[in-house]
Amino acid sequence: MAFMQCLEMHPSREMTVDEFKAWLQQFDTNHDGQISRRELNNALHSMRTWFAWWKARQAMKAADVNHDGRIDNGMEIEKLFNYAQQRLHMKICQSDW
InterPro entries attached here (predicted)? Predict the structure, then answer.
């Protein structure tokens, strides 16, 4: 069937914690070690997530503890893990067997 050749494969939503961090860091465009809402939006958009802008906003509300507009410390990263697992249906495991 000809239309099957046009479909793109979606990235896997199963990853380890280290892979999740590495995946986020590739969207850190200004290389400051922090993830802004715009960078998070780009990351979610890369996974073909519907309404990525809205989900990025919701993730920032859930994870940004100090309300500075950035995910920048371990506690905020952990909250982002939890949000990604619960709301974005990503599977993030602790270790890679």
Answer: Centrin_CML-like, EF-hand-dom_pair, EF_Hand_1_Ca_BS, EF_hand_dom
- Please state the pTM of the whole predicted model: 0.79
Quick one: tokens of 43? 């990351």
Q: Which residues of 7-20 are buried (b: 16+ CB within 10 A; e: fewer)?
A: eeeeeeeebeeeeb
CA separation for the pair 90, 93 (Å, rounded) = 10
Distance between CA atoms of 78 and 90, rounded to whole angstroms? 14
User: Would 42 be classed as within a structural domain?
Assistant: yes
In the chain, what percentage of residues exceed pLDDT 90?
61
Domain that holds residue 19: 14-93
